[in-house]
Amino acid sequence: MKEPVNEAKQKVKKQFGRSARQYVTSSTHSTGTDLALLPEWLQLTPEAVALDIATGGGHAAKAMAGQAAFVFATDLTVEMLEAAKQHLDAHANNIFYAAADAEALPFLDHTFDAGSCRIAAHHFPNPQAFVKEVCRVLKPGGRFVLIDNIAPADPSLDAFVNELESLRDHSHVRSYAISEWQEWFAQAGLRIEKEQCRKKTLGYREWVRRTTTSAEQIQQVDDHLLSADTFITDYFSIQKENGEVQSFEIDEWMVLVQK
C-alpha cells in the first residue's frame, strides 16, 4: 500500500536533516560528468534565472551559478539548505535559498528560464505533481534537466533495486522507470530534447553508511545484495571480496525537457 504523502515527506525531512553535511561531501553527489553537462544542456545565458529543485548539497546549483544571473536553490529540508549554503557561499554570491516542496513550488507562473533536479526525485511521493510544477514555473521555451536513478524495465530488476534503496534509506519512495517519466512529461506539456543513460558505480561502504542508522540495518542491505541471483548480480555488477560487497552499479538517466 502506498505511504501517505505527508508521512513520506516527514521521513525525507528526518533523513536529510540528520545527514545533511554528508550529502555536501558525498562523492556520488559532488562529482560526475553530468555536472559539467548541466549548464551546457540548459544553454544558460548571463541573464538567466535558474531553479534547482531538491538541491541537496547544492552541487547542481553551483554548476549553474557560474553562467546564470541568479539561481534559486530549494529543498524540503532546512538543515540541507543550511549545509548547502555554508558550502556554496565561498563559491558563488548569486545563489538564493528557499525551503520548498518540489510538488508545490512557492513561485509564480513563468518565473524561470531554466531549472534542474538532480539525484532527488526518487524521494518524491507524487512525481506527476512535481513535473506539473516544473512546467508551471518555467517560462515558455524554458529548459529543465532531470537527473536521477531509474528502475530498469525488467520487473525483477526494478523490484530488486527499489527494495535495496528502501532497506538502505527509509525515505526512498521509488526509482521510477523511464517510461513513467516520459508519460508524465508528455502529460504536462514538456518535450524531451535530449537524454543520456549511464551506469553509475557506487562505492558500497560510503553509500550504505550515509543513510543507515544501525548495524542491523546495514546487515539487511548486505544480505539483500549478497542474496542476489546471477542475473541480478551481473546486471548491477555487484563486486564482492571475501564475502563482502565492495561496489555495484545502478542506472541513472539525464534528460533535458523544454516547455
UniProtKB/TrEMBL annotation:
<dbReference type="GO" id="GO:0032259">
    <property type="term" value="P:methylation"/>
</dbReference>
<dbReference type="InterPro" id="IPR029063">
    <property type="entry name" value="SAM-dependent_MTases_sf"/>
</dbReference>
<protein>
    <submittedName>
        <fullName>Methyltransferase domain-containing protein</fullName>
    </submittedName>
</protein>
<keyword id="KW-0808">Transferase</keyword>
<feature type="domain" description="Methyltransferase type 11">
    <location>
        <begin position="51"/>
        <end position="146"/>
    </location>
</feature>
<dbReference type="GO" id="GO:0008757">
    <property type="term" value="F:S-adenosylmethionine-dependent methyltransferase activity"/>
</dbReference>
<keyword id="KW-0489">Methyltransferase</keyword>
<dbReference type="InterPro" id="IPR013216">
    <property type="entry name" value="Methyltransf_11"/>
</dbReference>
<dbReference type="Pfam" id="PF08241">
    <property type="entry name" value="Methyltransf_11"/>
</dbReference>
